[in-house]
Design a protein that fits this description.
disordered N terminus, 431 residues, 1 helix, 4-stranded antiparallel β-sheet
């Protein structure tokens, strides 16, 4: 039997394969690209350049580029690894690459600003946004919107008119030993998909949002003051109340709720009853067919994970399925997030574990439990093609009790993390 133990180690690896890896180089105050051997592939002729990703890189011409990745002013475009211009260098800002479509801005002004007395943001204020198709080298939607989102995988995007927000780019300072800033690195690359919609909501953006497709056709009117990201084909929006649309722009849940929480599996939503009671609004569960699955009776809820969520009535929590079925009684003071099908529960300051069917797999008799069952554990049970995670609880005598995700006790020990020189209980070697 092979005995392999991963000891006190968590390793994340990202392996990327490139036909040709190009890196930015600076020559005589201009920027270009060289291969890993230092051979110049794209001559240094730009004011600033970005890293290649998905075969594309942004370039800037005419900007003041004290730092390579953060030029101020100038014009922006996109090149490929052959050095060919696939998006003309005529825009005042570009962002949000999804597939071969990028958002472009004309008329915006980029400047460095301070946040809480720390200069760590660039902002792009003003101008109008549109989209450019890099594959076909054509402007897909001319710049005409105040704000835009990235295109989602099914070919729709949110666009806004009448907004007055600035576009914010976070940067990270690189300082020398004397504390002088020598470089600024963008924390979110142009080609990384992330949600700017959360920023718009946080800053209470003015203006109205609508949904468009890749032809630039409006799928809805400009009627929404805030909108959410699409997940599993649905997104929430607000129009005098919260509701849900699909990717065709069709309303599937009417805009009548005080609040809405999008669940991770995307086809069920917690909704807050709009009765003017504010924080006292009760919560119910509705599905994508606009069917109410529960009564409006919950005071707090969590998002769904693997088909289950936690709901609270008064001071007690219970497990609820995405069908609206209550899988346990409302008896728990605290709970954890379901991980590997298991979550901790607590009553009267004692702990145990429950599975996603709502059944206890241990007694509630321990003084401590793992916040995320099996997460970061160096052992994993793999026998007879069954993959069971290993977690632990701390007994009253402070011993660590190791158990699998069925609640079967494996052994006891004094530690949860083992070093190279530690003696590992024999019962854990097989797991």
């Amino acid at each position: 039997m092979k005995k392999i133990v991963l000891l006190n180690l968590m390793l994340c690896m990202c392996v990327c394969t490139y036909a040709q890896h190009l890196v930015p180089i600076s020559q005589s105050g201009k920027w270009g690209y060289a291969d890993e051997d230092g051979n110049v592939i794209i001559p240094a002729k730009y004011s600033a350049v970005g890293d290649f990703c998905k075969g594309y890189a942004w370039v800037n011409q005419g900007g003041k580029a004290k730092y390579a990745q953060c030029p101020e002013g100038g014009k922006w475009g996109i090149i490929n690894k052959k050095g060919e211009i696939v998006c003309p260098i005529e825009y005042d800002w570009i962002d949000y690459l999804t597939g071969d479509i990028i958002a472009v801005n004309k008329g915006g002004v980029m400047s460095y600003t301070k946040y809480k007395d720390k200069p760590n943001h660039y902002i792009v204020s003003g101008g109008l946004w549109g989209y450019y198709d890099l594959a076909n080298k054509v402007e897909l939607v001319s710049p005409q919107y105040n704000q835009v989102s990235a295109f989602y995988k099914d070919g729709v995007a949110w666009v806004q008119k009448g907004g007055d927000l600035v576009f914010q780019i976070r940067v990270r300072e690189e300082k020398n030993a004397k504390g002088k800033v020598e470089n600024l690195e963008r924390m979110f690359e142009v080609f990384g998909f992330y949600s700017i919609l959360r920023q718009f909501e946080r800053y209470k953006a003015s203006g109205q949002w609508a949904l468009i497709n890749k032809k630039g056709e409006l799928l809805t009117d400009f009627t929404f003051t805030t909108v959410g990201d699409f997940k599993s084909g649905y997104a929430w929006a607000y129009n005098n109340g919260y509701g849900v649309l699909n990717m065709s722009g069709k309303t599937i849940i009417p805009f009548q709720y005080e609040n809405i929480s999008e669940c991770f599996d995307g086809n069920v939503f917690w909704v807050w009853q709009k009765d003017g009671k504010g924080d006292d609004d009760l919560i119910g569960l509705v599905n994508a067919d606009n069917k109410l699955l529960t009564e409006f009776k919950y005071n707090r809820v969590t998002d769904f994970d693997d088909g289950v969520a936690w709901a609270k009535i008064g001071e007690k929590w219970a497990v609820v399925s995405d069908k609206g079925k209550e899988l346990s009684d409302f008896i728990y003071d605290k709970h954890g997030k379901f991980t590997n099908g298991v979550a901790y529960v607590s009553k009267d300051n004692l702990y145990g574990y429950i599975n996603s069917s709502g059944n206890l797999i241990t007694n509630i008799e321990y003084i401590g439990a793992q916040s995320r069952f099996g997460l970061g554990c160096p052992f994993r049970f793999n026998r007879n093609d069954n993959d069971l995670s290993i977690g632990w609880v701390r007994a009253v005598d402070k011993k660590i009790v190791w158990l699998d995700s069925n609640g079967k006790i494996i052994c006891e020990s004094d530690k949860t993390i083992y070093g190279i020189t530690d003696t590992i209980p024999n019962a854990l070697w097989d797991y």
